[in-house]
Amino acid sequence: MSRTIAELARLAQEAFKQSYAPYSGVTVGAALEAGDRIFTGCNVENASYGLTVCAERVAVFKAIAEGVRDFKRIAVASNQERLMQPCGACLQVLSEFCDDLEIILVDQQGNTSTTTLKALCPTPFKLE
């Protein structure tokens, strides 16, 4: 059963409330529609900043850990006024499991914009 954009946006907004972001103050949540399930994630920062994990990757890793790899789309919400797109690392991880994917960006007021993985990362790294 496919969710509406509004449902995925709301789930991503709920997920960012669980973020641990004491250093940047930027909270991010993701809701990944995979198969007939939704996997949520939030960003988790670390004093050793390189160990920080983004919300999108948390959601992807939860899906993979549950044996689900059929990704349909992802909503990414933050506590920021502007729409924030996934970072390059998250785009690369998403591209590992799908050629293209609808990406719904959500700002703090719940405004949305839709793009695609291919638009944001047209030539991901691939081992051939």
What does this structure look like?
With 128 residues, the chain is α+β, with helices and mostly antiparallel strands. The chain has one domain: Cytidine Deaminase, domain 2, CATH 3.40.140.10. 29% of the residues lie in helices and 24% in strands. The chain has four helices and five strands, in the order H-E-E-H-E-H-E-E-H. Strands 2-1-3-4-5 form a five-stranded mixed beta sheet. It is globular and about 40 Å long. The relative contact order is 0.18.
Task: Describe the SSE topology.
Blueprint: H1 5-16, E1 28-34, E2 37-42, H2 55-65, E3 71-78, H3 88-97, E4 102-106, E5 112-116, H4 117-120
CATH A-level architecture? 3-Layer(aba) Sandwich
CATH superfamily: Cytidine Deaminase, domain 2
Q: In CATH's first tier, which class applies? A: Alpha Beta
Helix/strand order, N-terminal first: HEEHEHEEH
Secondary structure tally, helices = 4
How much helicity do the residues have?
A: 25-40%
According to CATH, what is the topology?
Cytidine Deaminase, domain 2
| Separation of the first and last Cα atoms | 34 Å
Name the beta content range: 15-25%
Rg, Cα atoms, Å: 14 Å
Task: List the domain count as a whole number.
Answer: 1
Bulk shape: globular
Largest sheet: 5 strands, mixed
Oligomeric description of these chains = single chain
